[in-house]
Batch of 2 targets.
Target 1
Amino acid sequence: QVQLVESGGGLVQAGGSLRLSCAASGRTFDNLRMGWFRQAPGNEREFVATISRSGGDVDYADSVKGRFTVSRDNAKNTVYLQMNSLKPEDTAVYFCAAMERVRPYTLYRDPSKYDFWGQGTQVTVSS
């Protein structure tokens, strides 16, 4: 089992920034691909970003590309999501997720392919 605990959410004005953190325990962290997803009320959970085990490969949803940055510190067992230029449409509960199996890259955006999930942290962007 992997335990994931997100933190760093909150209320911010449009144009502001937040940094989310996700601390992992229970498995060797650098064996896990990590992902960030979000879910707004009434919407399905959607892909935000993913980062490879080494941190050398990242991918973003088009809606956040150029504004969000995903990174990881394997020594601290933590993955981060730096969110800049926030917009009201970024309002959602943000979840981090861990993928234990090695899968084709085409599956990295599919939430059903992630094995472990955190409890989520609320991000609210006011206009």
Target 2
Amino acid sequence: EVQLVESGGGLVQAGGSLTLSCAASGFTFDDYAIGWFRQAPGKEREGVSCISSSDGSTYYADSVNGRFTISSDNAKNTVYLQMNSLKPEDTAVYYCAAGARFSVRTAQAMGVIGIYEYDYWGQGTQVTVSS
């Protein structure tokens, strides 16, 4: 059974930091890209960052580039999202998802993470940034 379990969300003041974790199981980790997405109330789900488990290539949305860092521990089948300099507009439910390996290259070329390229999703973790 494919499982993706997010953890690490919480309440933080603006300017603070959080690290989210995504623990994956039930599939061959190296064959997939792992992406982080977020959805704020009343807004569409958007791609934040993604990483290729096989070669470590990454992509960041403009809104988080320079503040967020994605990393992968293949030995633990876990992907992390280090979030620094958090802003109130970062408040959302954050989801991790497993998708096609090529999705990172596609995101780099197109400037956006293709949400429909991701097949397996976690339940999400709430991040709230207070002003």
